[in-house]
Predict the 3D structure of the following.
Amino acid sequence: MKEVLIGLIAGIVSGTGMGGGTVLILLLTVLSGIEQHVAQATNLIFFIPTSIVAIITNWKYKLIDKKLALIISIFGTIGAIIGAVISSKTNVENLKKYFGLFLAIIAIWEIYSYFKLYIFKEKRENNNIKDK
Amino acid sequence: MKKSIVIGLMAGFISGFFSTGGGMLLVPTFLYLFRLEDKKARATSAMCILPMVVTSGIFYYKNNYIDWKIGILCAIGGIAGGYLGAKLLKKLDAKYFKIAFICFLIYTSIKFLF
């Protein structure tokens, strides 16, 4: 039951377009005490059905840049193989540390994009009003 | 073409290593480097991530990291949550979600690092 709830929360975050996967991994490791590798694997299963639904809808609305998607997918798959192999050889303690570092980088990026989206934009809009 | 190859490899590596986060690299790259509009950037990103996730899934499966019971339970909650989240986004300002998400990220990154 706890897992369904964790999935629900992560799903809500995904639905709002932010990192649902990071939330899922965190809740699974912190609340359910699941090993990092297993939590990451769970995220993969979690991602597939939800993303297929989104992809079909997006395909219908012609929102996918197919040529770009093809190139990125080919090289992304090669990258994914390298990443998955290295990850499986990394011990849990280190993997957790890298994950923490990765989250810190995302946090910094999110703060930057928050300022860019909301703070500077408001300033610009205010200036435009003044100009008029 | 070179840009796409490098970005593809990086996003793939992140997706394989952490199983998440590839999209966080792809979406801003598509927006700012490839000049796609917001909806297109997100849609193309999801399309690109799927083969990466399936590929890493095979490797995680081979290493016996997949717990099907937990996975399916989470997916059930996830489908309902995804629907709710998309509805919520239309009603509430994304701004507040972002603030909550940032606080959450800072707290957990500290927890994982120390």
Notes: Residues 93-132 of chain A form one domain. The radius of gyration of chain A is 19 Å.
